[in-house]
Amino acid sequence: MSTFVIFDLEFTSWPGALEQNWSAPGQRREIVQIGALRLREDFSIVEEYEALVRPVTNPILSAYFTELTGIEQEAVDQDGLPPATALDEFLGFCEDQTVLSYGNDMVVLGENVGWARARDEEIKNSFLAARFLNIRPWLNTIAPATASVNVGRLWQVLGLPKPAAGREHSALFDCYSFAAAIKCLCGAGATLPEGCF
Predict the structure, then answer these.
(1) pTM (predicted TM-score)
(2) How confident is the model over 10-39, as a mean pLDDT?
(3) For residues 96-131, b (16+ Cβ closer than 10 Å) or e, as one string?
């Protein structure tokens, strides 16, 4: 049975950053956490991936980011991987897979790969060895009530049981919420966009 990957990122942020598209001086969408699930076509989970990442340009997390995600500075300092290491591992996890996101997280992923390479850090696995696809437009069309919510709240809007321990804006929890939403919609007769398998 073939598999696919869903993923979510948490990246550095500050009050108003989203509205300003991270355009203030010194602001970059540096990845701090990666979460991913490898799923079978029946939506059963084969494997999960989770990593904390140490940002380089802004190594000190904003209070806004910590309050939003629950990710503490101490955890990133102690357990965070260098960006190139985390990106290489994650791209290896995604190799030869269709990789689905709820939004354009693949753009943020690409930015971070570019910055790591600009620092002459080696990333052996290729961004091009996977097929990244944003299925938020599909999901919001099938279930219009989801259009105004983030990925970590999909399960609530669809009236589903909480899919895992944890909280929204935690990358792996958000993946479980995303997976539950896709499984629910497909179980009700929706068909994932062409090319997902």
Answers:
(1) 0.96
(2) 94
(3) ebbbbbbeebbebbebbbebbeeeebebebeeeebb
